[in-house]
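Worked Example 4.2. Consider the chain below.
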Amino acid sequence: MLKNYGKIAITIIFISMFLLILGVKYVLGQDLVIMNILAFAAFSVVIGVLAGALLLYKLQKTFYIFTIGLFIGFFEMYRSFFTGPAEFGDLAGILSLFIFTAFGFAIGLIVETIYYLLSNNEQKD
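Applying the procedure from the previous section yields the following structure tokens:
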């Protein structure tokens, strides 16, 4: 399953683009302008390419933690959108998506590094 990194990357691109448009257009009720769509597309492509690269370089633990961080980020974004845009819920939602996605990636890299160092240390003994 994880050998189809290109298909997984494209799937993540389309799903994240769909979830961003769904959240902003229909949950918040905001009109989408071309700059919003370009920003959503750029974010989605970065996330998809990053996920595909993690699988290409066989960093499965990082991929799973990154995907969990992305899922939590979208969950928090929607939760923040439902609280209401009058209280900066729209800005907080988008920022929580970015923050949880970045934390998922960073924590995944840390876990992968620790696992690599421990397994490399065991081979020497």
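The helical segments are 5-27, 34-56, 60-83, 89-124. The chain has one domain: 5-124. Compare this with Example 4.1 before moving on.
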